[in-house]
Amino acid sequence: MIWSVAWRNIWRNKQRSLIVIFSIVIGLVGGTFTAAFIIGMGEQTINATINNEVSHIQIHHPKYLENDETQYYINNAAAISDFIRKINGVKAVSERTKVVGMVNSASFTSGVQIVGIDPDVEIKVTAIHSLIKDTCGEYFKGVKKNPVVISTKLAEKLNVKVHSKIVLQFAKSDGTIQMEAFKVSGLYKTSNTNFDLSDVFVRNIDLADSGRQYFRTHEIAILMNNKDSVGHVVSTLKSKFPELSVMTWKEIQPELGLFEDMSKVELYIILGIILFALAFGIVNTMLMAVLDRVHEIGMLMAIGMSKIKIFRMIMQETVLLTLTGGVIGMAISWLLIVAVHKHGIDLSSVSKGMEAFGVEAIIYPALSAEYYFNVTIMILMTGLLASIYPAIKALKLNPVEAIRQE
Q: Which alpha helices (DSSP H) does 86-203 contain, by range?
């Protein structure tokens, strides 16, 4: 009964109620879409980093992380990789050789990290092979001897193209310097400029010196089926191989882990500020509603309506008003996010600046169902808190004096 009365009371002054509802809708749409943009950008950056660069988990010799020196390799890497592949949740495992060196062309020299891989295995762990356009060669194909895959950005600096020759210079395990000629088989392009300019990919077998002495494995990269099982696998590996360093993607790229953790909190803070500001408008509207109905409230008190019911009626009016704006705002936000997500927001005009931070030029806003549920709870709490003062104001009315007022 009181709910139906409260709903009718909202629309006794349609203009005032519609203004409040419109304000709530605009505030929620703006806040929610901003949240979707930030979350979408963050998820894209994290997924790109995991799929293109670091994978979910990496294993190293403990001292390799401190010095990046070739003598700090992983013993029995093949046996360790075989063990990892049998763990539930593991999608793929790749053994990598990493050597700091120089890349030389006829016109330029640059410091790089040379990553030795088995291409057939690596394509299961990283997506670099999929980032080579049709006009930019192929992933370790089309070149018979010593193929190398570099980025388009590095190729521009070196002034080379597909099938051009470059020279890689690096230190062997015994400290002597080795120089080998390679031919570019493909050019990749990620959203991370720093990664593109630093990492070049070669086959492990092509890093052997003239005596056919091969480098050992410096890194084991592990790709999971999903991020949720990372913690369990890391715990298993740390207990099985305590002599090795086992790191998650958050430990390898702590800034991304911090961004993921902080962004979720910041979004609720932003929306909380918006709802806090809207609460003042809701309180003001309900106070005006109470003052306009002083005579009516006095009559209700005079005929025996308890103060608790009066309090509930004002509170329910406020909650219904807030929820009406909230439901409409969330529905519009969902439709807007779904529509924009299909094509994304093209920020190509500032892509160079974004790529310096590893952010893609096209952002696809996205929000989880959990976010909509939590925001609905926040809207309900806002309505409840905003109703307290107007309801208390109504309870302070003297029935006799209230009846006398017109």
A: 119-122, 152-158, 193-198
Contact call for residues 388 and 286 (beta carbons, < 8 A): no
Is the Cβ–Cβ distance between 84 and 51 less than 8 Å?
no
Per-residue model confidence (pLDDT) at position 155 = 93
Helix (H, G, I), strand (E, B) or coil at 190: coil
Alpha-helical segments (H) within 190-306: 193-198, 230-240, 249-252, 254-292, 294-302
Helix (H) or strand (E) holding 178: strand 177-188
Q: What pLDDT is stored for residue 56 in this prediction?
A: 92
Mean pLDDT for 347-368 is: 69
Which of 261, 237, 284, 251 is closest to 81 using CA atoms? Answer: 237
> What number of other Cβ atoms are within 10 A of residue 366's Cβ?
19
Give the dihedral of Cα atoms 356, 34, 382, 14; nearest 10 deg. 160
For the chain, percent of residues with pLDDT exceeding 70: 85
What phi, psi does 104 have (nearest 5°)?
Answer: -125, 140
Tens of pLDDT, residue by residue over 275-321, are 888 888 888 877 777 766 666 666 766 776 677 777 777 788 888 88
Give CA–CA dist 299/86, Å, rounded.
Answer: 77
Four-residue CA torsion sign, 131, 135, 140, 141: positive
The span from the first CA to the last CA of the chain, in angstroms, equals: 26
| Residue 145 CB coordination number (10 Å) | 8
* Position 58 pLDDT exceeds 80: yes
How many C-beta atoms surround the C-beta of residue 61 within 10 A?
Answer: 21
Polymer length in residues for the chain: 406
